[in-house]
Every structure is written in C-alpha cells, then in structure tokens.
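so my prof wants the structure for this chain in the tokens format not the other one, which i didnt know existed until like an hour ago. anyway here's the sequence
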Amino acid sequence: MKRLIVLGTIFFFLFGCASATTINSIPSGAKLYLDQEYKGETPYTHTDRSILLTKRSVTLKTGGYQNFNAEIKRSELDVGALIGTIFLTIPVLWILKYPSQYIFEMEELKKQ
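here's what i got, hopefully its the right format
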C-alpha cells in the first residue's frame, strides 16, 4: 500500500501539476514575452507547473501596433487536483489552472 502511495505521489508531481494555456493576439504573429523573457510568436502555448495564484506578465510587440501589457494567471478550478487533495494535502497548491486560452487585442498605432 505504501508503495502505491509513493508511486501515485511521484506520478502526480511529474504529470498532474502542469497547466497549459494558449496565448493569442489580434493581429496574430506578435512577439511574446513572459516575465520579460522572449518566448516566441503568437499563437503560443504556455505550460508550467506553478502553484496556486501564480501570475505571469505578458508583453506583446508587433510592428504598427502599440506594445500590449497584461498578465495571465491560474484562475480556473482544476478538478483533478481537487480530487487529489482528498488523498494528499500537497495538491491543494495546484488546485487552480490556467484558462484554456487568452486572446489579447492590440491597439493600432495612430498615424500622424
């Protein structure tokens, strides 16, 4: 029984804590920076194993549009983590997950 609990705990920490979200922009193809680190162009799928209430700053940049700043955060209930909390107390740190996607509309620069 102890072996099963240990294996279940290891499995949970390796695979159960991850959450993913897709970051889209209008227009598509904007350069994406998460916490000031360049990640690629939109659409971009971000996955991490961060804990409850984690926030990441988002900056989008593309020619002809103003830079766009926002944040993404784990804000949706993760039912799997909630069920895991019944058996172990640690999964409560991962009870929230990212929404499936974020769509950010960038504002065009005003022509002078």
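also thought this was worth mentioning. The chain has one domain: 2-105.
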